[in-house]
Amino acid sequence: MLKKRIIIITILLAVGFLGLSIYNINEKDKEILPNYVRLHIIANSNNAYDQALKLMVRDEIVKILTPLLTDAADREAAAKIVKENIPVLEEAAKSIVKEAGYGARSEYGIFDFPERKYEDLTLAAGKYEALRIVLGEGNGKNWWCVLFPPLCFVPQTVTEETSVPAMKNSENNNNSTQVKLKLGLLELFN
Prior knowledge:
Order of helices and strands: HEHHHEEEEEEE
Distance between the termini: 84 Å
Low-confidence stretches: 21-30, 155-190
Mean pLDDT: 76
Radius of gyration: 23 Å
Number of strands: 8
Largest sheet: 4 strands, mixed
Strand order of the largest sheet: 2-5-1-6
Oligomer: single chain
């Protein structure tokens, strides 16, 4: 009889510890890294044209959000501003990629991000609240930054001009058509 009680108590303790361990793992998965709102843009593909469009979408989104987020006092205020402007941001992205023959969709939620280093700041890998904009099929390399605090808006030290190849088989395409894209957010402040 005593042996049965010891076995039952041992089993109950083991189940209890297992349940507590699973609870802790699930709670860590739900843990959102505080005080940040991020922006994540995923290109249609990795070809040069789609990657250039991704950067053009980035520039337009940052241009729209810069004046809106300048007075955001905290993450909650910034998140509210971004959420309220999702239709405008999505429409801006769609208008940029329209000629390429695909669309754009956006969503606001909690997403996994890898570690990211900025000049004096390292953001740990983890779950962050973010606006995600997916261009076309969303199979290309992505770009991300921090909307709040406004690290997307910090001027970059390197500005280079890149030639974006014109879309093939476009009605408006001729061999000399190229779109000039300024890389670097410094242009937004001019």
